[in-house]
Specification:
139 residues; alpha+beta; N-terminal domain of TfIIb; four-stranded antiparallel sheet; 4 helices; elongated
Length: 139
């Protein structure tokens, strides 16, 4: 499960729906895996405004990854100034873009748990897949 995914998940328990503590889910006892891929600069530019930056920072800190800046980078921060042109194929990614790509798209939770900050319910992650099926009494 890519770390990017955690920016879009919240607790599935009905009583947690209105609580801000149910987002983001907190990774615990996690085994991380790096799966290297080519950098996709257009994707990073488009996903950046959709990220909840505070949640990205929280997840990164909880996993012991390098600390992120307090404010989210802008789309312009992802491309070297000398490479700005109308042709996306010639754009050169900055170190910020490479780091963000590494964090969001290459770093995966292979095994562990995702814990709700509101109700403390644990969702198991096995082989990179989170189990969000709830027992009957929690539905």
């Amino acid at each position: 499960m890519k770390l990017l995914t955690l920016n879009f998940l919240t607790c599935a328990i009905k009583t947690c729906k209105g609580s801000p503590a149910s987002f983001p889910l907190h990774p615990r006892d996690s085994e991380l895996e790096i799966i290297e891929t080519d950098i996709n600069l257009p994707f990073l530019k488009n996903i950046l405004p959709r990220l909840t930056w505070d949640a990205v920072r929280t997840i990164s800190t909880e996993l012991g990854l390098p600390e992120l800046p307090a404010t989210a980078p802008t789309r312009e921060d992802l491309v070297e100034p000398s490479s700005t042109s109308e042709d996306d194929a010639e754009e050169v990614p900055t170190q910020v873009a490479k780091d963000l790509h590494r964090l969001l798209l290459e770093t995966c939770v292979k095994e562990g748990k995702l814990v709700c900050g509101c109700c403390e319910h644990e969702y198991q992650v096995k082989e990179g897949v989170a189990n969000f099926l709830l027992p009957g009494h929690l539905v």
